Amino acid sequence: MSTKKSTYILAIESSCDDTSVAVLHNDKVLSNVVANQEIHSKYGGVVPELASRAHQQNIVPVVHQALAKANIDKNELHAIAFTKGPGLMGSLLVGTSFAKSMAMALGLPLISVNHMQAHILAHFIDSKNQSKPPFPFLCLTISGGHTQIVKVTNYFSMEIIGETLDDAVGEAFDKSAKILGLSYPGGPLIDKYAQLGNPTAFEFTHPKTKNKLDFSFSGLKTGILRFIQKNIKESRDFGTDFIKENLNDICASIQYTIVSILMNKLKEASKQTGIKHIAIAGGVSANSGIRNALMNAEKQVGWKTYIPEFEYTTDNAAMIGIVGYYKFLDKQFEDLSVTASARMKIKLRKHQK
């Protein structure tokens, strides 16, 4: 991999409902601007058509804001990086089209980035509040659409050794919250109420999988639904409100169960690979229960854990930029024929079971 003393990358992330643009100087973030789309909250989930329209409205002002905050001119840039996939096709097309147009107009190299690889490499952003894991390490990537355990050998060599067979962990949190009547997105609300409740008040199932490192959350979600329905019916017979009276304990028990599932899989992965450097990435890694469990594991099982800053857990362009930086050094460029891919297979070697 070649080196360059001073490299400025402009990165664009538009895989779902957040329009984000960042400017990086080498591996250091100069700006990381995110425009959220509040309109989806009233629908209880992201509406793809509305998301793509909002990206079209946001992309130009967000780019201007990112450049201004970084205090550099567009002519100082060395490359444009963008999220190729996976994600919502309409949203990806906005970012892809803008990145291609900007690269062509400025005569700059174009770099496509895999969204999930970016979540992992966010750990390599130069920041005083997070440390960079050494290779090899295991990374638990957890979000609304993905749940994977990835063995990371270097920046570009990764192997998925465990993944969800159905629902992602973020979906499990959000659907559980919906069952409880909480607003969208519900995952952060479950985390909030869980901190006030008893994690062992109620017991939920731990779904089993053929491969010990794979995940399954659909059965847990169904179990939670039946548990709530049963207790609501019984409480009504006594004139009480089961959810209202037990919300903190229910949330604490749901979160405890999900965190236990994740940690048990991680421990098994560490045992199988012999790797004790463990990282987490993705939006759900902001969950306090998961973070606390990882920190406790440092003492209990001798791990060294790596937890990213909150800013780099949710979808953001800084993580796209750091991948762009390493790809720039490795001269991994795209031509203008590159297209977005909603169901893009992440360029990580799939573990053969």
Structure write-up:
- A hairpin with a 5-residue loop joins strand 1 and strand 2.
- It is built from nine helices and eleven strands.
- It has two domains: about 10-120 and about 315-350, 2-Layer Sandwich (Nucleotidyltransferase, domain 5); about 130-305, ATPase, nucleotide binding domain (Nucleotidyltransferase, domain 5, 2-Layer Sandwich).
- It is α/β, with parallel strands linked by helices and about 350 residues long.
- The protein starts with 7 loop residues before the first strand and ends with a strand.
- The protein is about 40% helix and about 15% strand.
- The model is unreliable at about 350-353 (pLDDT under 50).
- Overall geometry: globular
Q: What is the strand arrangement across the widest sheet?
A: 10-9-6-7-8-11
The number of helical segments is 9
CATH superfamily of the largest domain: ATPase, nucleotide binding domain
SS strand fraction: 15-25%
What is the number of beta strands? 11
Return the string of H and E elements: EEEHEHEHEEEHHHHEHEHE
Mean pLDDT, rounded to whole units? Answer: 91
What's the number of structural domains?
2
What is the level 1 CATH name of the largest domain? Alpha Beta
Largest sheet: 6 strands, mixed
Could you please say which CATH topology of the largest domain applies here? Nucleotidyltransferase, domain 5
Low-confidence stretches: 348-353
Span between termini: 32 Å
Determine the oligomeric state from the structure.
Answer: single chain
* Overall helicity: 40-55%
SSE topology:
Blueprint (H helix, E strand, L loop, with lengths): L7 E6 L5 E7 L2 E8 L12 H23 L8 E7 L3 H18 L3 E5 H7 L15 E6 L4 E6 L5 E6 L5 H11 L7 H8 L23 H20 L4 H32 L3 E5 L6 H13 L3 E3 L10 H13 L19 E2 L3
Parallel strand pairs: 1-4, 4-5, 6-9, 8-11, 9-10
Antiparallel strand pairs: 1-2, 2-3, 6-7, 7-8
Helix pairs in contact: 1-2, 3-9, 4-5, 4-6, 4-7, 5-7, 7-8
